[in-house]
Design brief:
29% of the residues lie in helices and 40% in strands. The chain is α+β, with helices and mostly antiparallel strands. It folds into 2 domains: 1-35; 38-211, no CATH class.
Length: 212
């Protein structure tokens, strides 16, 4: 009788550990897949057009933050982004000439007390101007805040007087997560993590209709 009970316990114990091992393995797989979702930054669309003697730029991005950056935001760290557009003119005899440059700065932060997200937008670096000199918006979710950053519409790049109808010109567009605005210890740590290395660049040639 004792041998029968022992044999049964052996079978039950073996099945228990097999099932437990499978469950733990499945949990680890799910967690690794969730944590392994990397950050994404893609330039979906970039176009320019003339509006009332002004050259404006429209950019559409696909921006998804990685878990490391999201965790830093929830813990109170503000994250900065920068969009830059340079108007360039071809020169066959030397480097292309920079006619002008415009920049947008974004500061994204989480507010623990209200559980809301605040986005500040400025044409000047936040290290130079205070938040009071920027446009501020509050959002219920992170996706809503990122949606504003992803859509850069009717952005004035240059006046018509700055365009030369006799020259070939293009706009050089860049967007990045600005690690230089992080506290120094975070800058060092972020250098080895792909989630913080978000940047994209593209060149848009201006048509003859745009520069006349």
């Amino acid at each position: 009788m004792m041998g029968f009970i022992t044999h049964c316990w052996k079978n039950v114990g073996f099945e228990f550990w097999i099932r437990t091992g499978c469950l733990v393995g499945a949990c680890f797989l799910a967690l690794s897949q969730a944590w392994g979702q990397s950050a994404t930054l893609e330039l979906v669309n970039l176009r320019a057009n003339r509006q009332d003697n002004v050259l404006v730029l429209n950019a559409q991005l696909k921006l998804e933050l990685g878990p490391v950056v999201e965790d830093a935001l929830v813990k109170g760290l503000a994250v900065h982004f920068m969009a830059e557009a340079e108007l360039m003119r071809d020169r066959w005899y030397w480097f292309d000439r920079k006619v002008g440059v415009v920049t947008r700065y974004y500061r994204l932060a989480f507010q623990p007390l209200t559980r809301r997200w605040r986005l500040n937008v400025s044409s000047e670096p936040f290290s130079v101007t205070s938040l009071a000199g920027s446009i501020s918006q509050n959002f219920e979710s992170l996706n809503e805040a990122l949606g504003v950053i992803q859509r850069q519409s009717h952005w004035k790049v240059a006046d018509a007087s700055e365009l030369n109808p006799e020259a070939r010109q293009y706009v050089l567009y860049r967007f990045k997560l600005d690690v230089s605005q992080l506290p120094r210890p975070f800058q060092i740590a972020a250098g080895n993590q792909a989630d913080w290395n978000l940047q994209v660049a593209s060149q848009l040639r201006l048509s003859a209709e745009m520069v006349r």
